[in-house]
Design goal:
This protein is an alpha+beta fold and about 190 residues long. The protein contains four helices and eleven strands; from the N terminus they run ββαβββααββαββββ. The protein has a single domain, classed as Alpha-Beta Plaits. β8 and β9 form a beta hairpin.
């Protein structure tokens, strides 16, 4: 599994209905994209627990060929044409789990990024993060949760989809406009090594 996200920060007075319409009319185009485990079409709106207006889709790729086909094909080029070329953040997958509410519609996503301190052994940090993923998957309302790492910056990424706004869960909150999940069953379950 590979996790990928790009963030398009929009002006403070940007009409976010433009993004909502874009997702409503184009989101289905990846509903059967080969190699895509899931894509969460995410937004944050300024003043709604966010300092910015942002379109920030997050992808979990079941196969690197799918990710490459998207990045070098017409899908990502549409983003580049409309918004400019964003930085694409990328993490290597460590774990994926379906949540206790896996059949529910995901309405909220929480992304928590955590730096692995220089004084912490990477394996110790990963084991603790895996335990947190197990806990999140078992929390009421959890649809799915993924854990990934960027070893270049020693950063862990916890990404969880929820059927409602989860209380007491740390991280950046997003509204889920659409979820494409053509190969969600190929993301594997649990630890990825």
């Amino acid at each position: 599994m590979h996790a990928m996200q790009y963030e398009i920060t929009l002006p403070a007075d940007y009409d976010m209905e433009v993004i909502r319409r874009r997702v409503a009319t184009r989101g289905h185009l990846l509903d059967d994209f080969p190699g895509l485990g899931l894509k969460a079409y995410l937004i944050r709106e300024r003043g709604d627990a966010s300092q910015v207006n942002q379109y920030a889709p997050l992808y979990l790729w079941a196969a690197p060929e799918g990710m490459n086909a998207f990045l070098w094909g017409p899908g990502f080029q549409g983003i580049v044409d409309d918004f400019g070329r964003p930085t694409v953040q990328h993490w290597t997958g460590l774990s994926y789990r379906e949540g206790v509410a896996s059949g529910a519609r995901a309405r909220t996503a929480v992304r928590h990024r955590e730096r692995i301190e220089d004084s912490t052994r990477p394996a110790v940090a990963v084991e603790a993060a895996l335990e947190e993923s197990r806990r999140l998957a078992g929390a009421p309302g959890a649809v799915a949760t993924a854990l990934a790492v960027d070893p270049r910056h020693w950063e862990l990424l916890h990404f969880t989809l929820w059927e409602h706004e989860p209380p007491g869960v740390a991280g950046d909150r997003y509204e889920v406009l659409h979820l494409s999940s053509p190969e969600r069953d190929r993301l594997g379950r649990g630890r990825q090594w």
